[in-house]
Structures are given as structure tokens and as C-alpha cells.
Design brief:
This protein is mainly α. It has 5 helices and no strands. Helix content is about 80%, strand content about 0%.
């Protein structure tokens, strides 16, 4: 659960929070620690997505090709569907962590201004969003290949994987750009977080 930090004073002026310099420094330190924790969590998930998809997915298809057992091939279909669902769930968590990071960045910038220090890690770029969307889209398309490799004629799974990649990429774009903006602009949704 993320920590709650004092926000900007309410409209109408006044300093709603009389914080001493030591308090501001302590809160800023907590923000930095929380930012690091959330960022490490994101990086760990990305490593998991890449490693599991590439290693387990490839090993599953290879094992299915060697055994030529129809029961095992049906099992691989189930494994592929489960892989797609798991990766999509991790993507939803990625979006939640990005929302949390954005709020930490906003609060970090506020405290940097109060302390009159140069911008630090709280002025991160948003370049990671397209790359993580590609990783998650590729992983889901990979699990689609595992699920359909033996259910479809040879090579057809790869042909269908490309439209799946594009569709998942579109869903990624929608969730990141439309859904997150909707949550942040509707107070009832933002309060539910």
C-alpha cells in the first residue's frame, strides 16, 4: 500500500501544513524510498514476464513437438491460455504501479520545490511506457502461439500472433491513455484507489 503524503495547501491560501525543515526532509526521504520500492517492483515484473515467456513458452512448444502426444498438446493449449491471462493481469498491475509512480513524482516535485533543491529522480521521463507495452504485447502474443501451436495447422499460429500483438497493443494504449486519464479526472474513481 502506498503512503499518503501532505498535498498542496487547499485553495484560498494559507499554509495548511506548517512543516519544519526536518519534517520536509523526512517526508522527502520517505517519498524517495517509496519511489524506489515501486520502481523495483515494476522492474521485477518485467524481468518475470520476459524470462517466463521466452523460456517456458519455448520449452513448452519444443516439448510438445517432441512428444506428439495429443493429451500433452491439449495441456499446452491450457498453459498458453493461462499464460495470456497471467501476463495480462501483470500488465494491469503495471498500470496501477505507474499511477502510483506518477503520484509519487507529483509529490516529490512539490517537496523538491519546498526544499529548493535541483530536480532529481522525480523528473523521470515517460519513455518506459511504449517499451513496456511492447514487452507485454509480445508476451501475450507469445503465449497465444503456445496456446494455438498444435490446435492450428503448422505455422498458422505465427500468422495469427501478429494481429493478436496489434490488438493487445491497442488495448495497452487504451488502458494507459484513456482509462488512466478517466480515473485521474473522476474524483470518485481516484478516491477508490
Amino acid at each position: 500500500m502506498s503512503m499518503q503524503y501532505p498535498q498542496q495547501p487547499p485553495p484560498g491560501g494559507g499554509n495548511a501544513y506548517d512543516l519544519k525543515s526536518a519534517d520536509i526532509t523526512s517526508i522527502y526521504g520517505s517519498l524517495c524510498e517509496e519511489f524506489g520500492r515501486v520502481e523495483n517492483s515494476r522492474q521485477g515484473m518485467l524481468q518475470y514476464v520476459f524470462a517466463v515467456t521466452s523460456l517456458l513458452g519455448t520449452a513448452s512448444v519444443f516439448a510438445g513437438a517432441i512428444t506428439k502426444n495429443s493429451v500433452f498438446n491439449h495441456f499446452l493449449t491450457a498453459v498458453g491460455v493461462l499464460g495470456m491471462i497471467s501476463i495480462f493481469a501483470l500488465f494491469i498491475r503495471e498500470v496501477q504501479l505507474n499511477i502510483e509512480l506518477d503520484h509519487l513524482v507529483d509529490n516529490g516535485k512539490l517537496y523538491e520545490q519546498k526544499m529548493r533543491v535541483d530536480p532529481t529522480m522525480f523528473h523521470r521521463s515517460r519513455l518506459s511506457a511504449p517499451s513496456t507495452a511492447l514487452i507485454y504485447s509480445g508476451a501475450i502474443a507469445g503465449w497465444f502461439c503456445v496456446a494455438t501451436w498444435f490446435a492450428l495447422p503448422p505455422g498458422v499460429a505465427l500468422i495469427f500472433a501478429f494481429p493478436v500483438f496489434l490488438i493487445i497493443g491497442g488495448i495497452n494504449w487504451f488502458i494507459r491513455n484513456k482509462f488512466v486519464i478517466y480515473i485521474e479526472t473522476h474524483p470518485s474513481m481516484a478516491a477508490a484507489r
